[in-house]
Amino acid sequence: MWALGLLILTLLYLAAAGLLARLLPTVAKIVFCLIALGVPISLPYWYLFYPSFGEFERLCASDDRRVVKHTKKLDFLYSQSCYGAFHHSKDRAFKGYECEYWPRTQPRLSAGEVHYFRFTRGRNWGTAICQSECANRGYYHGWEDYCLAECFDGTEISEPSFKYEPVQSVTSIVDGRLVRTRTAIVNDNLGEMVVSNEYTYFPYGDGFARVLGMSSGSAPTLTCERKANTYGLEFLEPNSGQ
Known about the structure:
This protein has 242 residues and is α+β, with helices and mostly antiparallel strands.
């Protein structure tokens, strides 16, 4: 519906420009027509010259897109997802990993109930099948059924040895044009461990330009070409000697 309205406005603009051109002398008519056609053709690229776009490019290229404020040495790496914990720890010298896990053999008592488990390499870990299954299976391709169940030993724990959570906030830097999404990884005792910044730019604004998004209902956006790796866990380090 919005797209139809935009088309109607464009046709009205061209019709009005055509009528006005008829009232002008030949030379002026040519200049006017060039300008009238040049405006809608060049309009999509005007944002390249806006100061707000220059600020967007500067912020995307800045060195503080991701800042590690604190590191922590651990025996066991925690992540909410068991596959994520395994993935981030498999090539690093942790004793194992911890995650939220619900044993399928136990009935779920309530929707909000959470169980934590600590996983260490089991007696089958060194076998060829475990090495193959753990290396090649993704989360949605049976990793939990084969790798986690057959190659690791799990022990239920009351809480992870070092727990953290992401906290996200969105701030407008240039109203209707430039937005910052700040993600901090926070531990209750150490505070912010890592801070990452992503930037979103609205080349045509965040108002009427939503018609350009058609069925999505949102205005076109640009994001930084280089991403900030918001959820990397390099700030968690294995204890020495492991």
